[in-house]
Amino acid sequence: MTINTPYAIEVDGLTKQYNDFLAVDNLSFTVKKAEVFALLGPNGAGKTTTVEIINTILKPTSGTVTLLGMDVTQKKYDIIPRIGVLPQGFSSFDRITVRETLEYYSRLFGCRKTDIKGLIALVNLNHKADEQYRKLSGGLKQRLGIAVALVNDPEVIFLDEPTTGLDPRARREVWEVLLDLKKKGKTVFLTTHYMEEAEVLADTVAIIAKGRITAMGSPLELIENNVNYFTMTLTSVDENMVGIIRKMGFDPVPNAYEDTHEDTQEDNHGIFKIHLEHTDDVRRILNAANDGKASFISLDIRKPNLEEVFLKLTDDPLRHDLSSMKETV
Amino acid sequence: MNLKFINANIIRANIIVNIKSFYRDKTVVFFRLAFPVILILVFGTIFMERDNEIFDLNIQDLDGTASSEQLITAVDSSKRFKITTVDPAVNARPYAMGGKANLVLIVPKGFEMSLMEEMSAESSGKSVTLTTLYDPSSFGVTTKMGVLELVLAGINQKMSGKPAPIDLTEISVLKKKYRFIEFFVPGIIAMAVMTACLFGSVNLNAELRQKGVLRKLSTTPITRIDWILSNVLYQFILAVLSTLVMLVVSYFVFNVSLSINGWLLVFVALDVFAFVGLGMILTRVAREAESAAAAADALMFPMMFLSGTFFPVEMMPEFLQKFARVLPLYYVNEGLRASMVFVDHMASLKNALFIGVFAFVVFVIGTIVTTFNGERT
Q: Is residue A185 part of a domain?
């Protein structure tokens, strides 16, 4: 039975248990039609398990998932023709060309009128149409994966970490394709551990950690509701600088993302992040530095972003994970 | 098995992708088509030599008379020897020890005279003695001496002018006279199909699962049954192609005389089902592609050598013969030989039933345990 609903996806009390490991813990959320929904979380947070239950690859331990008005555990073969999936780490047949790969998947869906040329153009693979899969770079493979997910002109598209492992240029190329899909009004369910990706692409972001959603809303809502400070990043090699800032009652945190030298913290110099509640605090710090004759190399003041939300809503181990994300961006 | 989950278009699409992947991979083409042919050529040549073996024989004629020449001609006419004459001036012992010959037949001086005396009315009853100088360390020299003794016995019999008191008539249990190559080719067909299907199934399933291709396929309308059927059909097409190539080469190079009938297709099909099924089970038991391939090796080697592919099972000790009879490949070998060599339909049917039951069981288990998403069924 198909239920008429404004939601493309409805998840209620979803739980997935692997022996003693609880991968997904009682998740409930909805995804509106034509919206880009991002499930944001570090590795091992339960993103892939969640998306794979919703797109029918895995079976839930308990809870219900309704996709396009149909129960995913009951109507798998009715749902599949209406969705497109880019699984994590997409891969295809090594010796089959880009064009042949799209033709193959199109045949699997029984689509006789798939615009293969148009799909190749959409993901900008015209010059590689007759190249075998094994000869494509990581970015091109991922773009082919997105094209494969679109062969059946799906109503809902699932993209599981579509840009993981790609260099910044390739990542931006994939974003362009996804923004194109957004313009076409497709419902896109995206999982990522890149803050910037979620912020650029998503209408709604759900932050997931240890199998639970800790916050959900538009990127702006999440920031406004969860972070009431802005961040000053200070680069200084002056040993006095940290002491001066601490005396003022602030708590400078060594920026692990950009400075990986452990001894920096002990030497009290390097790159520091300071959370400030008022813009006037910047002037106060600069004056104090001037009075204490402490020099600095650069100063950067940023509005709060999803990264701050993430740091606030998740535990310390995630900070560590975040630092590794930053390094790979 | 739910028939509504079988889609001919999907199966066709899958077979096309598999065939394209096959012919674009030159290594796979070599091992699938050329390697069995090389085995046939190598072993066929060896066995052909043994079937029509002509031995080298060195003869030193110290007598140099018409009788000694007649003797050499009589030995030569047996067509079992390629004769090389040794100069009478040469010392035969160092000649043989120098590695130039492992058997030298010496016709002594006075041979003709002694022979005449023996054949005359005043015969002393003593035989004329020929000497053979041989190297016992040389491989096959005993066989060669045995053949020479038989040839000389034949010459003696003829010279006596009387019919042999005991004669031997040979009756083959087979309708035609077969050479070893004709027994060997069915074995190689069975083995080539087994290895290709076992490894093909393991590689396809384990590698594609490890790479995540099966996960992607699980989000398309293809069902497990479509997938398995298309892989079996693909393996069957390649098995038939590979069998055809082997038979054509065997006919053209060795002029083999084998009966081609419906049983050949039956046994090739059962071979495919049995070993694709076994491959699917191995893929499930050994989760990684490498360990699945190692497990396939461990199963394949005993079967290759102990189920009568390269040499008859009867040559093995009793306990190994019993072991051979639990190996599925043994029944494919026996069945193919029964149909292609002996043209014994009852024996073919019996072997087909054995391998058929095995194929059915492993294929059903393989189908049950194969999944796309990696979750236990």
A: yes
| Residue B181 pLDDT grade (very low, low, confident, very high; cuts 50, 70, 90) | confident
* Interface mutation vs chain A, best among B220, B223, B224, most A CBs within 10 Å: B220
pLDDT score for A2: 58
| Residues of A in Cβ contact (< 8 Å) with B373 | 52, 57-58
Q: Are A65 and A54 in contact (CB under 8 A)?
A: yes
Residues of B in contact with A91 (CB under 8 A): 211-213, 216
The residue behind tokens 């692990």 is A256
Instruction: Confirm whether A316 is domain-assigned.
Output: no
CATH number for the domain harbouring residue A158: 3.40.50.300
Give contacts of A109 with chain B, Cβ < 8 Å.
220-221
Chain B residues touching residue A16 (CB < 8 angstroms):
none
Return the minimum-mean-pLDDT range out of A257-261, B188-192, B250-254, B336-340. A257-261
Q: How far is A207 from chain B (nearest CA, A)?
A: 25
pTM: 0.75
Complex ipTM, two decimals? Answer: 0.77
For residue A294, the cross-strand partners are none
pLDDT at A313: 76
Out of A55, A91, A110, the one facing B221 most closely (by C-beta) is A110
The mean pLDDT value for A30-40 works out to: 93
- Check CB contact under 8 Å for B221 and A56: no
Exposure string over A199-211, b if 16+ CB within 10 A, otherwise e: bebbbbbbbbbbb
User: In this structure, what CATH number is given to the domain that contains residue A233?
Assistant: 3.30.70.2250
Q: Is B187's pLDDT higher than 70?
A: yes
What the block records as the tokens of B90 is: 């040469």
CB contact under 8 A, A96 and B17: yes
Report if residue A322 sits inside a domain: no
How far is Cα B66 from Cα B60, in angstroms, rounded to an integer? 14
Chain A, window 78-137: residues with a beta carbon less than 8 angstroms from a chain B beta carbon? 80-81, 83, 85, 87-96, 100, 104-105, 107-110, 132
Which residue does chain A place closest to B373, by CA atoms?
A57
Q: Residue B84 to residues A94, B60, B75: CA-CA distances in angstroms?
A: 61, 9, 12
pLDDT over threshold 60, residue B198: yes
What residues in A contact B214, CB-CB < 8 Å? Answer: none
The number of folded domains in chain A is 2
Q: Which of A43, A11, A10, A3 is nearest to A27 (CA)?
A: A11
3-class DSSP assignment, residue A304: coil
Residue A294 banded pLDDT, cuts 50, 70, 90: confident
Give the pLDDT score at A221.
87
For residue A186, pLDDT over 80 is answered with yes
Distances from the Cα of B150 to the Cα of A253, A278, B104, B319, B364, angstroms: 102, 116, 16, 36, 59
